[in-house]
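tool_call: predict_structure(chain=1)
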Amino acid sequence: MIISVGSGRCRLFHDGREFDCVVPPELAVRQKSALAVGDRVVTEALADGTCRLAAVLARRTRLSRPDPLNPHLQRLIAANIDIVIHVVSVKAPPLRPRLIDRFLIAIQRGGAEAAICVNKIDLLEPDERARELASLDPYRALDVPVVGCSIKSGEGIAELRALVEGRTCALVGHSGVGKSSILNALDERLDIATGELHKRGTGRHTTTASTLHDLGGNTFLIDTPGIREFGLWKLTLETLRDYFPEFSEPGEYCRFNDCSHLPEPGCAVKERAESGELSNARYQAYVRLAEDLSAPKG
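tool_result:
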């Protein structure tokens, strides 16, 4: 299993030990799109006693995004993960449901389960907490676990540990939400470096590359670099509806069978969102994503 990927090399974990492996040139030149932390691989021994990566086995799940520098290339974040936990915070940085919607689509498309960890809830007064956490009710309605968490008080850490026990998990989210701190709280032996926030409230990129950590008991956690924007790989306007499952039942009552749930008259999805029967926040997220997909690329 790949623990981390470097320039022309990767670090592997097998039979309880770690070792370095040479990545052949044909893979090294495109390693960000060809290799991912969590990949299962085949290696071959070299005459000098080192090993070389020979093949990457088929992935059962993946998490990816378009390459920020070239949207026509896929950037792999992690592979063969059972669950992806999107870590958010309520302050410093503030909660961003729009990013949650994008991550949920990417997680669904990749085949893993999704969960949300709300970090830094100790910064909220009780009434603030109830209000902030209520904004995540639409995700609970989709059976996405939501765990409130505080590194300072320890609240939620046991629940989070139970969620990942015996599984391979990736922690993803905005810079500064505290992914590395949560990993340290889950297993203090890790002692991962953490960063302070910039004055503008965004996080320093303490984690610069995805790295897999073995917590024992067949539990593996992947720490990923923080991001501020998250693109969706080859998502189309035609397939966008598939990633809003709460639209399926009301969509049967739309006037048109091929309703896009946008400007068409007689759209039951839009009507229910406006009446409050569906989450209007989720519907507006759908509209924004549709607008992004329809915008001219240039």
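agent: Residues 116 and 183 are 15 Å apart (CA to CA). Proceeding to next step.
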